[in-house]
């Protein structure tokens, strides 16, 4: 006699997965990254026809200086959002690190190299604090980082007393404004960072763990993955990269401002979501994020060339973010696959 | 007078599973009608049909003699059918009075909410339930389980419930709360309320119920007045079936003791558990849902921390504080809920099968893709997993194949101890047999296997030894030869069953 | 019967502990303490004009905090208030210098706020996009849009009737009246109407709310619309304070409003909180801010720049206390 817990005989057989080049090519073509690359190409062409200043090497390379800070932070933010978390405090961490750089150099009299180390260390500590509260006090990431957004920004204002530190030595500007063999310094740093993070996410166990946690944190724990350690690392990494961004920013503008990078979390999150990372976690890629950063920067550049003032280009990012979320939403309902 | 509720020839089928087959059931006003059956017998499906969560595929339902068809739970509530949950329906931050009247608060003449009346009526309701010390202004989140249950009952009464369904109401209660619950049930019965009472504790059935209905494997077995049945009769009704020879158990001679657990405590689910396991042995762990088997297994696996107790592996004391510790000692745990705990369903066969050993499957810092692919292929072959390819998403596979992937994942870590929690739940007969064959051959290779299962034939067919847990304690141990279904169920369910010999806890 | 375990609920409740459990009470105590402390350091702090100023200045925060309370209680969040404030203020100013009758100006401003709330609410409730990213995006759309629309130009020369915030009625400044009336009105709404209680249900246990027949989507939409309308009111209070309206949005506004609500007892996880608490929170923050110049540390007054850090620390503390309280409940 059969028991109740019976046949999946009635369930239809799983769909045959076709093999071969054709379907695989189709999968690549329709991947979000490909579509983004296409959009990017279209925007480039569009802008090239609008203004002859656009498609010069000089302009393009110069543009890269503006999005590097956002892109550097977008790398760890991708990891965080894939795990289903979020970090709103990155802009404040950037500012705090920059302020600490100036402060430790000017008021503690540290040599510039050590001041830069303080800057990076500040970022690490800020990120680590977020991670500890999230992992051990079990406060949801949104809430913690909303609070630390205020705290870190507040400390930036408090420590700097709203005064900027300027008059950095000549050589300091090389990181943000200089170049190596014609290529902006920060671009080189960005490329290296992108390659490292991209490879880690796509090809190492750590990267696989991040996807696992985002898809099913409980299942990841049961598989023996040390979820706490992964989370601590990615939030600390986010703080560190915000510190690096703060360093490059300071080098670029040669002044430390407590209100620096207000709103950079918007840019970063918009780029990550545009790049195909689901806000609910579980999927995403570094390539997509970088394409997202590029597209947003180009849209901004285009607006500026059309005469729209700098501050208001932020409107574009808002629209992009919401549009990306809507598309993401619609796609999610349609497909079952990742 | 027509019955309060009457079900005639109710059937319900889910994809591939016939949950209820031609079941008839009725409840009279002023009656406590107990519903008995093993896990998977169909009780919860029946309850969900009565409360409007599911619609039956066949048969009809009558309330007060009139046919009814519910399309949503709200309709059942409106007629006066209420199900008592312990937690799900309450708002922890709101007060008792507000929880009771949420959605139908009394109004003042001006149309605003009348808190005074709500509190007064809540007070009245709670007093009739003898919960006099429960403050109607207390936040529900601060209440213990027993009091929350009383709030739920008061909530049902506030909507003039005439039929109350209690599903395992005493599972998490202290004995004082249980007494109070019984008083409430008796009072409600006196008032003419009909009650459906589901419980695994036979002594409760005999103490409270007027009639008892037994379901088995989705079939209706019998309905008898409680005064006319005995416990052994009930047990036999619940389990009586022919045992197929589905169990290709190879006879092995167990080796030496490889795992020894002493006095393992973890409040509240595990209370002083001690046992041993030998190499090549399959130990079946039987017991009711909620008896603490999974918790104990998770403590062994390091997923939950123990309060006290010792674990010895190969004679040496072991400190297991995390799954990695357990894995290092060669312990693997195949969890109960394969979709939520055992697998990452949006990921592929390949990714899931390597997840537990990913740390070792590397070349330098990178994942050894080639190694991973061959691991996946060999797992598929070895366990005969039916999938179009290793890149198939696990969520698209059938239950049996999903379970095999979970097993494959853990086999890749070359464990010496395997803890399997409900290895064949929700799996078709064919796959079941394969998994049993697999477990047998693993035991033959020297693994010590702890098999937690609520499927009695499986426990009896596969185990060399059978342990029974009840309420966090090990209450019985039987050898393969002496074990019977009745003995196991008896030990799992009752305080002291007269017809069976019980082995005292070691 | 066991004499050992006396049920906690049988013991007579300790009145002091009950009081301490109420966040509002703690806040009032904290407020009194801070005020006394600062006054002891510098008696000039407690002049009547000062108290009146504090209440008047925090009105535009307190009014928005009402809306924020409802949004957070429902289980969501809104960080677009600053940009919405700026946009609505500009609308108010622009309409008034174009000789639209003042009452109509105010009405349209409030409606503009409501429209923004509608957009937010629709995206969150019906398109199921998490509130944090919706309002993050909306915030930047509004901010950028404002700059584009105003071309960076400030608005001057508003007609005399416009200066609502600068007037008073029976000696009490208008903003204070408006603030108290709205607080009272919404307190009644949240406590005495079914609609109001539904907000708590949706935030406290969304599934249970849905199962008991509450239309959770409509509740969330409604909450965002109300929030938007209140921000519209707050923008009037804000815009009419000065003789010009800036083209940029006030920075840190949404944080100020959220902090007011959270230290006032609104749990950031949803399900509980009151507008009275939010009011007290706003008053407390404003008191703290204005007291900074009166406090000397090491011979120097505390610089105003530290206020945001204090704010952030307060919000973190409030959140941690709330989470600890919830853990103890389970």
Report the principal-axis shape of chain C.
globular
Straight-line distance between termini of chain C: 26 Å
Distance between the termini of chain B: 55 Å
Number of DSSP E strands of chain B: 22
Please, could you describe this protein's structure?
- The complex is a heterotrimer of chains A (338), B (506) and C (330).
- By secondary structure, chain A is mostly helical.
- Helix content of chain A is 70%, strand content 1%.
- A two-stranded antiparallel ribbon of chain A has the order 1-2.
- Chain A is globular and about 55 Å long.
- Chain B folds into four domains: 1-80 and 162-241, 3-Layer(aba) Sandwich (Rossmann fold), CATH 3.40.50; 89-158, no CATH class; 253-330 and 415-506, P-loop containing nucleotide triphosphate hydrolases (Rossmann fold, 3-Layer(aba) Sandwich); 343-405, no CATH class.
- Chain B has helices spanning 43-50, 73-79, 96-101, 115-128, 145-158, 175-190, 202-208, 231-239, 293-300, 323-328, 338-342, 349-354, 369-383, 399-411, 429-444, 456-462, 485-493; strands at 5-14, 17-27, 32-36, 58-63, 66-68, 81-84, 163-167, 194-198, 211-216, 219-225, 257-266, 270-278, 282-287, 308-313, 316-317, 331-334, 362-363, 366-367, 417-421, 448-452, 465-470, 473-479.
- Chain B has a six-stranded mixed sheet with strand order 6-7-8-3-9-10, with helices on both faces. A six-stranded mixed sheet of chain B has the order 16-19-20-13-21-22, with helices on both faces.
- In chain B, helix 4 crosses helix 5.
- The radius of gyration of chain B is 25 Å and the shape is globular.
- With 330 residues, chain C is an all-alpha fold.
- In chain C, strand 3 and strand 4 form a beta hairpin.
- Chain C starts with 14 loop residues before the first helix and ends with a helix.
- Chains in contact: A-B, A-C, B-C.
- The interface between B and C is medium-sized, with 25 and 27 residues.
């Amino acid at each position: 006699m059969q028991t109740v817990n019976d046949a999946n005989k009635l369930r239809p057989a799983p769909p045959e997965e076709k093999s071969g080049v054709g379907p695989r090519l189709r999968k690549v073509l329709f991947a979000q990254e490909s579509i983004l690359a296409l959009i990017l190409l279209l925007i480039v062409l569009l802008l090239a026809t609008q203004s002859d200043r656009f498609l010069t090497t000089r302009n393009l390379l110069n543009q890269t200086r503006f999005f590097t800070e956002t892109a550097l932070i977008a790398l760890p933010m991708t990891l965080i959002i894939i795990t289903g978390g979020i970090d709103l405090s990155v802009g404040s961490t950037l500012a705090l690190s920059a302020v600490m750089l100036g402060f430790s150099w000017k008021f503690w009299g540290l040599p510039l190299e050590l001041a830069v180390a303080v800057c990076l260390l500040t970022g690490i500590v800020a990120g680590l604090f977020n991670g500890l509260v999230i992992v051990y006090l079990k406060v949801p990431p949104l809430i913690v980082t909303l609070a630390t957004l205020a705290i870190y920004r507040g400390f930036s204002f408090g420590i700097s007393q709203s005064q900027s530190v300027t008059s950095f030595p000549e050589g300091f500007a090389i990181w943000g404004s200089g170049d190596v063999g014609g290529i902006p310094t920060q671009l080189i740093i960005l490329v290296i960072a992108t390659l490292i993070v991209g490879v880690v996410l796509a090809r190492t166990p750590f990267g696989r763990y991040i996807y696992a946690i985002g898809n099913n944190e409980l299942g990841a724990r049961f598989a023996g993955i040390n979820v706490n350690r992964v989370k601590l690392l990615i939030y600390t990494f986010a703080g560190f990269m915000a510190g690096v961004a703060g360093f490059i920013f300071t080098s670029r503008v040669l002044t430390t401002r407590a209100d620096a990078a207000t709103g950079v979390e918007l840019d970063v999150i918009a780029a990550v979501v545009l790049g195909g990372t689901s806000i609910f976690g579980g999927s995403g890629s570094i390539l997509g994020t970088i394409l997202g950063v590029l597209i947003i920067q180009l849209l901004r550049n285009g607006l500026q060339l059309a005469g729209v003032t700098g501050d208001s280009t932020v409107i574009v990012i808002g629209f992009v973010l919401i549009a990306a979320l809507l598309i993401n939403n619609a796609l999610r309902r349609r497909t079952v696959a990742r | 007078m027509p019955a309060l509720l009457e079900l005639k020839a109710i059937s319900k089928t889910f994809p591939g599973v016939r949950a209820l087959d031609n079941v008839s059931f009725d409840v009279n006003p002023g009656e406590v009608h107990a519903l008995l059956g093993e896990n998977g017998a169909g009780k919860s499906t029946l309850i969900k049909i009565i409360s409007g969560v599911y619609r039956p595929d066949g048969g009809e339902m009558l309330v007060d003699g009139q046919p009814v068809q519910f399309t949503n739970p709200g309709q059942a509530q409106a007629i006066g059918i209420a199900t008592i949950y312990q937690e799900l329906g309450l708002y922890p931050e709101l007060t008792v009075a507000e929880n009771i009247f949420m959605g139908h608060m009394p109004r003042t003449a001006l149309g605003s909410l009348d808190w005074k009346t709500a509190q007064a009526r809540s007070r009245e309701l709670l007093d009739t339930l003898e919960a006099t010390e429960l403050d109607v202004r207390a936040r529900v989140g601060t209440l213990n389980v027993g009091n929350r249950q009383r709030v739920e009952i008061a909530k049902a009464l506030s909507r003039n419930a005439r039929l109350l369904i209690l599903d395992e109401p005493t599972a998490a209660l202290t004995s004082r709360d249980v007494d109070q619950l019984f008083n409430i049930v008796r009072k409600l019965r006196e008032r003419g309320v009909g009650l459906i009472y589901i419980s695994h504790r036979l002594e409760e059935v005999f103490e409270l119920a007027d009639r008892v209905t037994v379901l088995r494997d989705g079939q209706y077995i019998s309905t008898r007045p409680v005064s006319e049945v005995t416990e052994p009769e009930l047990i036999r009704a619940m389990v009586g079936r022919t045992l197929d020879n589905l169990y290709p158990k190879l006879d092995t001679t167990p080796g030496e003791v490889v795992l020894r657990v002493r006095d393992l405590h973890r409040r509240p689910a595990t209370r002083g558990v001690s046992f041993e396991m030998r190499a090549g042995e399959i130990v079946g762990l039987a017991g009711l849902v909620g008896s603490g088997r999974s918790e104990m297994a998770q403590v062994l696996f390091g997923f939950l921390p123990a309060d006290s107790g010792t674990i010895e592996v190969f004679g040496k004391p072991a400190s297991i504080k995390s799954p990695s510790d357990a894995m290092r000692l060669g312990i693997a745990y195949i969890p109960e809920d394969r979709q939520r705990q055992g697998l990452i369903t949006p990921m592929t066969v390949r990714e899931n099968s390597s997840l537990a050993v990913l740390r070792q499957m590397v070349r330098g810092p990178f994942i050894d893709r080639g190694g991973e692919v061959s691991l996946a292929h060999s797992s598929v072959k070895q366990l005969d997993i039916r999938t179009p390819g290793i890149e198939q998403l696990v969520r698209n596979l059938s239950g049996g194949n999903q379970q095999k992937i979970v097993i494959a994942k853990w086999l890749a870590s070359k464990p010496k101890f395997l803890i399997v929690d409900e290895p064949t739940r929700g799996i078709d007969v064919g796959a079941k047999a394969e998994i049993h064959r697999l477990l047998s051959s693993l035991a033959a290779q020297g693994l010590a296997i702890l098999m937690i299962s609520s499927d009695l034939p499986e426990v009896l067919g596969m185990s060399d030894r059978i342990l029974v847990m009840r309420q966090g304690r090990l209450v019985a141990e039987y050898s393969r030869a002496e074990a019977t279904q009745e003995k196991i169920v008896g030990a799992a369910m009752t305080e002291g069953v007269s017809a069976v010999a019980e082995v005292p806890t070691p | 019967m066991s004499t050992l375990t006396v049920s906690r609920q049988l013991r007579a409740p300790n009145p002091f502990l009950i009081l301490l459990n109420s966040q509002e009470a703690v806040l009032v105590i904290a407020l009194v303490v801070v005020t006394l402390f600062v006054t002891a350091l510098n008696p000039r702090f407690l002049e009547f004009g000062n108290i009146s100023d504090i209440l008047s200045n925090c009105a535009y925060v307190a009014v928005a905090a009402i809306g924020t309370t409802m949004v957070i209680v429902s289980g969501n969040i809104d960080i677009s208030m600053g940009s919405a404030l700026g946009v609505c203020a500009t609308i108010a100013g622009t309409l008034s210098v174009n000789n639209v009758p003042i009452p109509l100006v105010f009405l349209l401003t409030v409606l503009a706020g409501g429209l923004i709330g509608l957009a937010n609410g629709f995206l969150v409730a019906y398109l199921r996009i998490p509130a944090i990213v919706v309002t993050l995006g909306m915030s930047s759309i509004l901010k950028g849009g404002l700059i584009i629309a105003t071309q960076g130009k400030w608005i001057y020369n508003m007609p005399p009737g416009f200066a609502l915030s600068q007037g008073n009625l029976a000696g009490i400044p208008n903003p204070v009246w408006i603030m108290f009336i709205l607080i009272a009105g919404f307190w009644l709404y949240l406590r005495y109407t079914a609609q109001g209680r539904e907000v708590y249900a949706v935030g406290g246990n969304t599934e249970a709310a849905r199962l008991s027949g509450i239309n959770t989507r409509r509740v969330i939409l409604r909450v965002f619309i109300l929030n938007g309308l209140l921000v519209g009111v707050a923008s009037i209070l804000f815009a009419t304070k000065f003789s010009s309206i800036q083209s940029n949005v006030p920075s840190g506004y949404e944080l100020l409003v959220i902090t007011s609500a959270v230290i006032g007892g609104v749990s950031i996880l949803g399900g509980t909180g009151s507008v009275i608490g939010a009011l007290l929170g706003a008053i407390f923050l404003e008191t703290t801010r204005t007291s900074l110049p009166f406090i000397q540390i090491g011979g120097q007054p505390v610089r105003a720049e530290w206020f945001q850090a204090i704010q952030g620390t307060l919000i973190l503390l409030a959140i941690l206390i709330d989470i600890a309280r919830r853990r103890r409940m389970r």
